[in-house]
Automatic annotation (TrEMBL):
Keywords: Membrane, Transmembrane, Transmembrane helix. It comes from the Bacteria. Residues 25-416 form the Major facilitator superfamily (MFS) profile domain. This is Major facilitator superfamily (MFS) profile domain-containing protein. InterPro entries: MFS, MFS_dom, MFS_trans_sf. The chain crosses the membrane at residues 29-49, 69-88, 100-119, 125-146, 158-181, 187-206, 231-252, 272-291, 303-322, 328-353, 365-387, 393-412. PROSITE patterns: MFS. GO terms for molecular function: transmembrane transporter activity.
Amino acid sequence: MGDEGFPSRERGLGDTAAARHRAPTAFMLLYALAYTGLFVAFIPFFSLLLPVKVEAVSAADRVALLSRITLVGALVASVSNIAFGALSDRTYRTRGTRRPWLLAGLIMLIGAYAIVNLAGDGTALLLGVAVFQIALNAMFAPLIAIMADEVPDDRKGVMAGLLGIAQPVATLAGVGVTLDFVSGKAAQYALVCLATAALILPLLLFGREGALPVPPTAQANGGRFQRRDLALAWAGKLAIQVAGTAVVTYFFFYTSDLLRGEANGQARARTIAWIMAAATIVAIPLALACGRISDRIGRRKPLLAFASAGMVAGLALMAGAGRWEVAAIGYTAFAATYAVFIALHAAFTMQLLPSPAHRGRDLGFFNLTNTLPNVAGPLLALLLVGGASTFPILWTAAAILCALGGGLLMLVRGQQ
């Protein structure tokens, strides 16, 4: 399908190459800020705030309750991301923008945090997380499509490097909400909401879509081979995301158990937050360097292979760790290379999409690789994890998945 129905994005032949490359820089920075804002919205929530809330609501049933909440949230996220992606496609065709959905999602997100804060039992908490997932995906679906719309292929690696900063910065935000001056859960939730809004609003206020004529990526292969490549890219990302979800969801409990006896509950949470923040020091320059290198060499696969190997190594350290310090080193290796993988895979995938007319919808189906792991990850944990001594089994299974995911991507023919 062509671009019928899209707002005109033509430019005269007098446009210079310098203008075409200069123009998106400010937009790319605004975009990276907004993308980081979405990570700030959910990384502290799922890695720190929600586990603490689950323990407060039902300490004896914490793993089962968190798994049920995660399962329902994943189902809601799967449907809502595809729906909002398709809605943003329609808005883009008729109005030339996807940004109104970002504003609607931001308003819903603040309401979701209020519901979670007031929740006094597992049912209310589950409802709050479901609303949270709807709000988050109302923003994520159009925002991811905006990158495919606006960023040329020869800058997608740099853009991916900038996006790789999002998760580490969001982890630092998790450290911020555990500091002593942030008193009470309501204050923590309010701080996250304020930070999210501060990062997203600049794109809403100053970003302008359609500034550049970004043509759809030319596909060297078509039909059966294109579908094969998309399936491999989808399956590879799914395997990695199942592993990542397991780590993000249960690392808090795992490390908290390793720290038990050395610190109280609040001190354990702060230590875990600092462990997560340590990965930021490695991940930020690594993500930027890998994105830049992938653009310069015109290849994504070597960097994706590097990231996969780094994740396997980090998980192997975690699986064999007897002390929290060793677990922290393993987590740092995993988290830094995981951030590189997720960012570069986004650029890799966008260059495989078949039609610019349905980018939001198609990326919504790719987003199933983000949401289905929230089903598979908890199910895997329920099967494998019975206590602190069995967490290494989960990390070993995650390492196998990372190796499998990286291997599947190496089989894609349409991208190097």
